[in-house]
Amino acid sequence: MKASSHPSATALAVLTAAVLTATVVTGCSPGGDHTGDAAGTSGGVVKRDFWGWAPGYDQSVALFNRTHPNIQVAFDMTASGSKGGYTKTLTAAKAGNAPRLTQVGYETLPSFDAAGALSDVTKYASAARPQFADWTWKQVTIGGRT
Fold first, then answer.
1. What is the pLDDT of residues 132-142, one digit of tens each?
2. PROSITE patterns attached here (predicted)?
3. CA-CA distance, 117 to 142, in Å (whole number)?
4. 24, 30, 89: which is closest to 57 by C-alpha?
5. ∠122-123-125 over CA atoms, to 5°?
6. In CA terms, which of 52, 54, 109, 136 is 20 to 30 Å from 86?
Protein backbone atom coordinates (compact mmCIF):
# COMPACT_ATOMS: atom_id res chain seq x y z
CA MET A 1 0.00 0.00 0.00
CA LYS A 2 1.35 3.40 -0.89
CA ALA A 3 -0.24 5.69 1.60
CA SER A 4 -0.92 9.39 1.42
CA SER A 5 -0.37 11.93 4.15
CA HIS A 6 -4.04 11.46 5.04
CA PRO A 7 -4.31 10.29 8.70
CA SER A 8 -6.09 7.13 7.57
CA ALA A 9 -2.94 6.04 5.75
CA THR A 10 -1.12 5.71 9.06
CA ALA A 11 -3.98 3.72 10.61
CA LEU A 12 -4.03 1.34 7.66
CA ALA A 13 -0.25 0.93 7.83
CA VAL A 14 -0.60 0.02 11.51
CA LEU A 15 -3.23 -2.60 10.59
CA THR A 16 -0.71 -3.97 8.11
CA ALA A 17 2.03 -4.06 10.73
CA ALA A 18 -0.27 -5.74 13.27
CA VAL A 19 -0.42 -8.96 11.29
CA LEU A 20 3.27 -9.19 10.36
CA THR A 21 4.02 -11.83 12.98
CA ALA A 22 1.99 -14.54 11.22
CA THR A 23 2.49 -13.68 7.57
CA VAL A 24 3.03 -10.60 5.58
CA VAL A 25 0.08 -8.49 4.58
CA THR A 26 1.50 -6.43 1.80
CA GLY A 27 0.33 -3.62 -0.33
CA CYS A 28 0.23 -4.29 -4.03
CA SER A 29 1.38 -1.65 -6.45
CA PRO A 30 0.63 -2.69 -10.01
CA GLY A 31 2.62 0.06 -11.64
CA GLY A 32 0.21 2.78 -10.54
CA ASP A 33 0.24 5.23 -7.69
CA HIS A 34 -2.02 4.08 -4.88
CA THR A 35 -1.55 7.16 -2.72
CA GLY A 36 -5.27 7.59 -2.31
CA ASP A 37 -8.52 7.88 -4.12
CA ALA A 38 -11.12 10.60 -4.30
CA ALA A 39 -12.63 9.59 -0.98
CA GLY A 40 -9.23 9.49 0.72
CA THR A 41 -8.17 12.92 -0.46
CA SER A 42 -11.50 14.65 0.10
CA GLY A 43 -11.97 13.50 3.69
CA GLY A 44 -14.61 10.85 2.93
CA VAL A 45 -14.50 7.15 3.74
CA VAL A 46 -11.39 5.41 2.39
CA LYS A 47 -12.15 1.95 1.01
CA ARG A 48 -9.50 -0.76 0.63
CA ASP A 49 -9.59 -4.37 -0.53
CA PHE A 50 -7.72 -7.10 1.34
CA TRP A 51 -7.21 -10.60 -0.08
CA GLY A 52 -6.09 -13.41 2.20
CA TRP A 53 -6.80 -16.89 3.42
CA ALA A 54 -5.81 -17.10 7.08
CA PRO A 55 -8.58 -18.01 9.50
CA GLY A 56 -9.76 -15.05 11.54
CA TYR A 57 -8.83 -12.28 9.12
CA ASP A 58 -12.52 -11.69 8.46
CA GLN A 59 -13.03 -11.06 12.18
CA SER A 60 -9.95 -8.79 12.38
CA VAL A 61 -11.20 -6.75 9.44
CA ALA A 62 -14.67 -6.46 11.00
CA LEU A 63 -13.12 -5.17 14.24
CA PHE A 64 -10.88 -2.76 12.33
CA ASN A 65 -13.86 -1.45 10.37
CA ARG A 66 -15.88 -0.91 13.56
CA THR A 67 -13.05 1.05 15.18
CA HIS A 68 -12.01 3.03 12.08
CA PRO A 69 -15.22 4.40 10.52
CA ASN A 70 -13.29 6.51 7.99
CA ILE A 71 -11.42 3.48 6.62
CA GLN A 72 -13.40 0.48 5.45
CA VAL A 73 -11.58 -2.70 4.44
CA ALA A 74 -13.37 -5.32 2.35
CA PHE A 75 -11.95 -8.79 3.01
CA ASP A 76 -11.98 -11.34 0.20
CA MET A 77 -11.15 -14.91 1.24
CA THR A 78 -8.90 -16.30 -1.49
CA ALA A 79 -7.24 -19.64 -2.04
CA SER A 80 -4.00 -19.99 -0.10
CA GLY A 81 -0.94 -18.71 -1.89
CA SER A 82 0.28 -22.01 -3.29
CA LYS A 83 -3.25 -23.02 -4.26
CA GLY A 84 -3.85 -20.02 -6.51
CA GLY A 85 -3.87 -16.96 -4.28
CA TYR A 86 -0.42 -15.78 -5.38
CA THR A 87 -1.20 -16.28 -9.06
CA LYS A 88 -4.50 -14.40 -8.67
CA THR A 89 -2.78 -11.51 -6.90
CA LEU A 90 0.16 -11.23 -9.31
CA THR A 91 -2.19 -11.41 -12.29
CA ALA A 92 -4.33 -8.66 -10.78
CA ALA A 93 -1.21 -6.56 -10.10
CA LYS A 94 -0.08 -6.88 -13.72
CA ALA A 95 -3.57 -5.91 -14.88
CA GLY A 96 -3.57 -2.86 -12.63
CA ASN A 97 -6.39 -3.96 -10.33
CA ALA A 98 -4.69 -5.64 -7.38
CA PRO A 99 -6.08 -5.23 -3.88
CA ARG A 100 -4.46 -2.60 -1.70
CA LEU A 101 -3.56 -5.33 0.84
CA THR A 102 -2.89 -9.01 0.36
CA GLN A 103 -1.53 -11.88 2.42
CA VAL A 104 1.90 -13.08 1.29
CA GLY A 105 4.13 -15.58 3.10
CA TYR A 106 7.62 -14.43 4.08
CA GLU A 107 9.22 -16.85 1.65
CA THR A 108 7.30 -15.39 -1.29
CA LEU A 109 7.86 -11.70 -0.55
CA PRO A 110 11.01 -11.46 -2.74
CA SER A 111 9.06 -12.84 -5.72
CA PHE A 112 6.39 -10.16 -5.28
CA ASP A 113 9.11 -7.53 -5.00
CA ALA A 114 10.81 -8.76 -8.19
CA ALA A 115 7.45 -8.58 -9.98
CA GLY A 116 7.01 -4.95 -8.89
CA ALA A 117 3.88 -5.88 -6.97
CA LEU A 118 4.78 -4.25 -3.64
CA SER A 119 4.57 -0.74 -2.29
CA ASP A 120 7.04 0.77 0.16
CA VAL A 121 5.27 1.57 3.44
CA THR A 122 8.43 2.14 5.47
CA LYS A 123 7.59 5.67 6.55
CA TYR A 124 4.18 4.55 7.83
CA ALA A 125 5.11 1.22 9.38
CA SER A 126 8.37 2.29 11.04
CA ALA A 127 6.61 3.59 14.15
CA ALA A 128 5.38 0.03 14.83
CA ARG A 129 8.90 -1.44 14.50
CA PRO A 130 9.56 -1.67 18.30
CA GLN A 131 6.53 -3.96 18.70
CA PHE A 132 8.18 -6.78 16.73
CA ALA A 133 11.15 -9.08 17.24
CA ASP A 134 14.15 -8.25 15.03
CA TRP A 135 13.91 -11.50 13.07
CA THR A 136 10.24 -10.85 12.29
CA TRP A 137 10.85 -7.33 11.04
CA LYS A 138 13.76 -8.50 8.89
CA GLN A 139 11.42 -10.98 7.21
CA VAL A 140 9.37 -8.06 5.82
CA THR A 141 12.29 -5.81 4.91
CA ILE A 142 13.88 -5.89 1.47
CA GLY A 143 16.73 -3.52 0.71
CA GLY A 144 15.97 -1.48 3.81
CA ARG A 145 12.31 -1.03 2.81
CA THR A 146 9.24 -2.38 4.57
1. 999 999 999 99
2. PROKAR_LIPOPROTEIN
3. 13
4. 24
5. 60
6. 136
At 28-40, the pLDDT tens digits run: 644 433 434 444 4
DSSP assignment of 30-69? -SS--S--HHHHHTS-EEEEEEE-STTHHHHHHHHHHH-T
* Structural element, H or E, at residue 111: helix 109-114
This prediction has a pTM of 0.70
Delineate the domains of the chain, giving CATH numbers in brackets: 7-139 (3.40.190.10)
Residue 103 pairs with which residues in a beta bridge? 25
In this model, does residue 113 exceed pLDDT 60?
yes
The radius of gyration of the chain's CA atoms, rounded to the nearest angstrom, is: 14
Cα dihedral 95→101→105→111 (10° resolution): 30
Q: Is 44 exposed, middle or buried (0-12, 13-18, 19+ CB in 10 A)?
A: exposed
